[in-house]
Specification:
It is built from 13 helices and 19 strands. By secondary structure, the protein is an alpha/beta fold. It has three domains: 124 residues, Methylthiotransferase, N-terminal domain (Rossmann fold, 3-Layer(aba) Sandwich); 239 residues, tm_1862 like domain (pyruvate-formate lyase- activating enzyme); 60 residues, OB fold (Dihydrolipoamide Acetyltransferase, E2P), CATH 2.40.50. It has a six-stranded parallel β-sheet, with helices on both faces. The protein has a five-stranded mixed barrel with strand order 15-16-17-19-18. Bound molecules: S-adenosyl-L-homocysteine, iron/sulfur cluster and FE3-S4 cluster.
């Protein structure tokens, strides 16, 4: 049996897809080369914006039609956030689906497939608890891996569907996280990204640390302590984590970022808006000034830190003035990367009850303006790197041009260079930046040809 997993959505979905792939392989399934030779196709879905759902639904429609015509025995199913949101309505939207598996039932995929093969389609399983610990596998051969540390989300940003589809916040026991990282290192992984919707909340709700130990080592909150524990895993080269929140940028966290050698100078710190009334209506839990303070403290303590962010344009009631404030704020912080989203009402969230009063054209315009600003800004940031050394985790021949090699800097920038004798995939090397574009640093070995 050959399977294919197609992934939409965030890094959590990328991780989940990898974990179910590993699970299926353990059960004897083989990875298909593409759609044509797959007996089972699973689409992992995202509900965060209407467009994300529309894309997945479009793809599913095509796959089901193609299967009917050309692969009558093929099973097409859906997993993830959209299943959790739509439930049985999913089967009305896409007749012919084999199954739907929610965000808390993914480890049951082999059992669900079994039921489908027994003729029970469509099978819906949205789970009844947390199957996080049951779903921790990885596909071998990668240098970089995502590791869940905090599931669900207890914040209630007024626009966001994630808490509805991912459930309550739950921190994995630190020992499981560290064991997983250790195992990954044993499989050749050099870099891990610790995942959580509000990752710095790690360890707050369910006490995963032994009684009384949360302040040991001078740390007040468990997340910096988890970073210490992961940093201490022998053989791990780089540690990242996402997404951050200003409230989590405590002195302990900043100190951990500054002092722990594997923790990269890179933080995804979504700000969403640079205007206080909007932030308040989004219920983000910080003001512009609090965000500014968090960013300044990080930038001062962690030289060269690259901050990336998420922005929503066209939130209900966002005026031109609010928008211009966001624009100026992005410039003030000097974000290294920004993901800009057009506000999309999600039913069941408070904001969906408000008038979606910024027209689509205007959302598009604001989106475009911020993207152009961002490109200009990152060009300038990258230009300042010319002549400097960067540490690169070598990935091997570049996808575009196999004569060139590529890798990533600790600030998560793509670095392209000519192959260096003796330097192999998985090595970390110091390279000298020669020239740059908005997306790439071109670098050379410190001694040319050496
Ligand atoms: N937990 C992360 C974000 C997860 S969702 C955090 O709070 O930082 C990823 C991004 O999608 C968000 O940061 C936000 O910018 C965007 N997003 C979420 N809901 C949205 C909506 N209804 N419309 C448009 N963008 C949205
Ligand atoms: Fe959504 Fe807010 Fe939770 Fe992020 S923190 S997942 S934006 S509710
Ligand atoms: Fe991620 Fe989308 Fe779900 S952003 S958590 S895949 S709704």
């Amino acid at each position: 049996m050959k399977f294919l997993v197609i992934t939409y959505g965030c890094q959590m979905n990328v991780r989940d897809s990898e974990a179910v792939s590993a699970l299926l392989m353990r059960q004897g399934y083989v990875c298909a080369e593409g759609e044509a030779d797959a007996d089972v196709i699973v689409i992992n879905t995202c509900s965060v914006r209407g467009k994300a759902e529309a894309k997945a639904l479009g793809k599913l429609g095509l796959l089901v039609a193609d299967s009917r015509r050309n692969h009558p025995d093929r099973v097409v199913g859906v997993m993830g956030c959209m299943v959790q949101r739509l439930g049985p309505a999913l089967f009305e939207k896409v007749p012919g689906l084999g199954f739907g598996i929610g965000t808390q039932a993914m480890s049951r995929l082999p059992l669900v497939l079994q039921e489908v093969f027994e003729g029970k389609a469509p099978v819906l399983d949205v789970g009844d608890g947390d199957d996080a610990e049951a779903l921790t596998g990885h596909v071998e051969g990668h240098l970089s891996a995502f590791v869940n540390i905090l599931l669900g989300c207890d914040r209630r940003c007024t626009y966001c569907i994630v808490p509805h589809v991912r459930g309550r916040e739950w921190s994995r026991p630190a020992e499981s996280v560290v064991d997983e990282v250790r195992e990954l290192v044993g499989q050749g992984v050099r870099e891990v990204t610790l995942l959580g919707q509000s990752v710095m909340n790690y360890g707050r709700r369910n006490p995963v640390w032994p009684e009384g130990s949360t302040s040991a080592g001078g740390y007040e909150t468990p997340f910096p302590r988890l970073l210490e524990a992961v940093d201490a895993v022998v053989g791990i080269e780089r540690v990242r984590f996402t997404s951050g929140h200003p409230s989590g940028c405590t002195p302990e966290l900043v100190r951990a970022m500054a002092e722990l050698p594997t923790v990269c100078e890179h933080l995804h710190l979504p700000c969403q808006s640079g205007s206080d009334p909007i932030l308040e209506r989004m219920r983000r839990g910080y003001t512009v000034d609090q965000f500014r303070q968090a960013a300044r403290v990080l930038q001062a303590a962690v030289p060269g830190v690259a901050l990336s962010t998420d922005i929503i344009v066209g939130f209900p009631g966002e005026t031109e003035e609010d928008f211009e404030r966001t624009r100026a704020f992005m410039e003030e912080i000097g974000f290294d990367n920004a993901f800009i989203f057009k506000y999309s009402p999600r039913s069941g969230t408070p904001a969906a009850e408000w008038d979606d009063d910024v027209s689509d054209e205007e959302k598009m315009r604001r989106n475009q303006v911020l993207l152009e600003d961002q490109t200009r800004r990152v060009e300038a940031i990258n230009k300042a790197l010319v002549g400097q050394r960067v540490n690169v985790l070598v990935e091997g021949p570049s996808l575009r041009n196999a004569a060139r090699w590529s890798g990533r800097s600790r600030t998560n920038k793509v670095v392209v260079f000519e192959p260096i004798p003796g330097v192999e995939r998985g090595d970390c090397v110091e390279l000298l930046v020669e020239r740059v574009t908005a997306t790439t640093l071109y670098a050379v070995g410190s001694v040319r040809g050496a």
